[in-house]
Amino acid sequence: MAPMSVLTRDEAQTRAKLLDVHRYQIELDLTRGDEIFDSRTVIRFSTRADGDTFVELKPAELGSVTLDGNPLDLDTLHLDENRLPLKDLTAGEHELRIDATMRYSRTGEGMHRFTDPTDGETYVYTQLFMDDVQRVFAAFDQPDLKAVFELTVTAPEGWTVLANGITERQDDGSWRAAATPLISTYLVAVAAGPWHSVRTEHRGLPFGIHCRRSLAPHLDTDADEILDITRACFDRYHEKFEEPYPFDSYDQAFVPEFNAGAMENPGLVTFRDEFVYRSAVTDTERQTRAMVIAHEMAHMWFGDLVTLRWWDDIWLNESFAEYMGYQTLTEATRFTDTWTDFGIVRKAWGYDADQRPSTHPVAPDPEAVPDTASAMLNFDGISYAKGASALRQLVAWLGEKDFLAGINTHFARHRFSNATLADFIESLAAATERDVHAWADSWLRTTGVDTLTASVTAQPGEWTLTLDRAGSRPHRVTVGVYDRDLNDSRALLLRERYETDIPQQPAPEPRTGPRPALVVPNDLDLTYAKIRLDDVSSETALRGISDVPDALTRAVLWNTLRDMVRDGDLAPAAYLETARAHLPEESDLAVVQGVLTFAAAQVADRYLPAHERPAALATLTSLCRDLIRRTEDGDHPGLRLIAVRHLIDVAAQPDTISAWFSEGTVPGGPELDPELRWRILGRLAVLGAIDDAVIDTELVQDPSATGQEGAARCRAALPDPVAKRVAWDSMFTTDDLSNYLFTATAQGFWQPEQTDLVRQYVDLYWNDAVALAARRGPAIAEAAGRWAFPAYAITPETLQAGEQCLTESTPTPALRRKLTDQLDDLARALRVREA
């Protein structure tokens, strides 16, 4: 795939000054076969002055172009990569008609086409963010040129077509979608195929959930839960927001091989169909699905109704939806502890991203986002997790009433239009006397993580907490004060919680009572900062973290220990010892999952030297066995499932998990569903305990898309030189793998146990990844940088080779960003090993 020219901010501003785009009429014909489809577009627009501009289009073949009724000569009309020039436009109204043949995608970009290996049915859907509209139809592709969209789709017999508006099948067999209100080009959506649908109505609007037919039984099982969450969030947003839901329907389509978690297309939200659970999941995973539903629905207002003007303000979309997703779920559903999961999972993502050289402000300066390629790099833990954390701190400082008043002012001022950070801050300022401009400068325009270090001094009958700040942001934090229970020395009791501002001015006053056993700054996790405990509290946390009564407080403490390991302030082995001692007593699923994941994927696999890894795996195996024994009564199925999964992942010998596989069950449960069977086979493949024949046999039993991915992962994991060469060529030479099969193969390829076997591929990676990214585009580039990177080759030589690649080669922006982050993580692992 040849790269497309990126749109610069200056070009977008110039075009926005010239054009006013009114309406698109789009006709898509999806009956042309497996590779191509027809796209016919009529754009009605006006120019404010005489001038030249261009429209974006990336066709397989350009059929015809007509401007104001005059056919343009294709022999002289030069399509410059993805830009069709429009010369000598006069001020006034214009009509542009373009007929083109377009190519389907296999990478989750543009119009993605997927054939289900289970039943042979085919599905297509669009993913047009950020600049992939031009892969589907001709457009003035930038967010501040909103227009009305009318869509007609010709699809094979037996298909249903979904779109932003309500669709109806016409007498000629085509499908027509109701015209949209004013929306941005990247938000147009189509999903077509023989969908299985569950439909209902709520508040007079049609609601629907959709998936491919082979997943129908699984969607039906969870349909009530999904729709209940949808209705509850919809109602809660209408209590918060004065502006009613702005579109004519609300469909949620679970689509195959989707790169993101979901996409906020107005009226047709698309989700990765892993959220239609084929196998057992934990309640935390159900909570994650619910949070994504709430997140995407928040975008209907913040992102779709009011849209950013340029991509430097992407945080306005994502931070708001992230915050609202977690908060609304807590308020409106049975998932009342969502902020614990946010703290242990999402916030850690933000902290990690903010300490890499690729960090950026939550709201970067416009000059720092000069084009769409650079903007795409900002979809990271900063725009999501750090931004949501900043908004949570803003609500704590401002008060929810004033915050919502400012949000509603923002919606009223900019509905069906575009807005900037300055507009948002002005709307907030109208609702409060506080200096939100100064807050924005401190929180949104700066980079890095502040560190709050606690010190406690004590006198008879009183004690004083001092919080020193390394950083520049103001913080309002809740301090938790805990004592040992006199009747149970293992228990910690909350003495009090109190709020304090940082910097502490004037100096903190002494508090009455004896010195506490544990003082937790940021006890309710309302700010975004690394925490360093005082010496006594640090010892209490290491020896008694499971004694802390509140799960959110335990999450804050586990994050503190995690940060200390990453910064070289706590030995990785000490983290493992704390996990071994206290995780068997943990009740919160998000905490157990988060700690086990960090302990295995980072501590055991990367931070400890290779010769210490077997002992670490033995420790984690023993920990998981304790959790399995604790859950034998069947009262904690989610906890047991987490323990079983992780025991499989850290198994150093095949005997136990091979017996589970043969018997089809874990003794005492659970029975092995497809996810657990492929997980076991993946680990047995790494250990060299199975061969291709076993993988092929399992694939016969589970020929689904997930089964195909599991088989690819297993084959790539086999400790066999031929298997490794086949896997490498499939990723970097043939270009036949879809985005999901590429990821699965990459996940299997690199294993800590196989560093000697794959050593030659470390040297091959750099040039092969650069070439692959240039050929296949951003989605595969991101996967190659994330999953195909030699993460376990933790040597100075790997670091040097990677840095040489960055300086001497020309990776695409997407790959360069991933390599920069991966190399920084590699350098951190080396520092931790040397600490």
UniProtKB/TrEMBL annotation:
Domain of life, per lineage: Bacteria
Annotated EC: 3.4.11.2
Entry-linked Gene3D superfamilies: Neutral Protease Domain 2, tricorn interacting facor f3 domain
Annotated GO MF terms: alanyl aminopeptidase activity
The name this protein goes by in its record: Aminopeptidase N
InterPro entries noted in UniProt: Aminopeptidase_N-like_N, Aminopeptidase_N-like_N_sf, ERAP1-like_C_dom, Pept_M1_aminopeptidase, Peptidase_M1, Peptidase_M1_aminopeptidases, Peptidase_M1_dom, Peptidase_M4/M1_CTD_sf
Family of this protein: Belongs to the peptidase M1 family.
Domain Aminopeptidase N-like N-terminal, first and last residues per copy: 64-187
Domain Peptidase M1 membrane alanine aminopeptidase: 227-443
Required co-factors: Zn(2+)
Any Pfam family: Peptidase_M1_N
Domain ERAP1-like C-terminal: 518-827
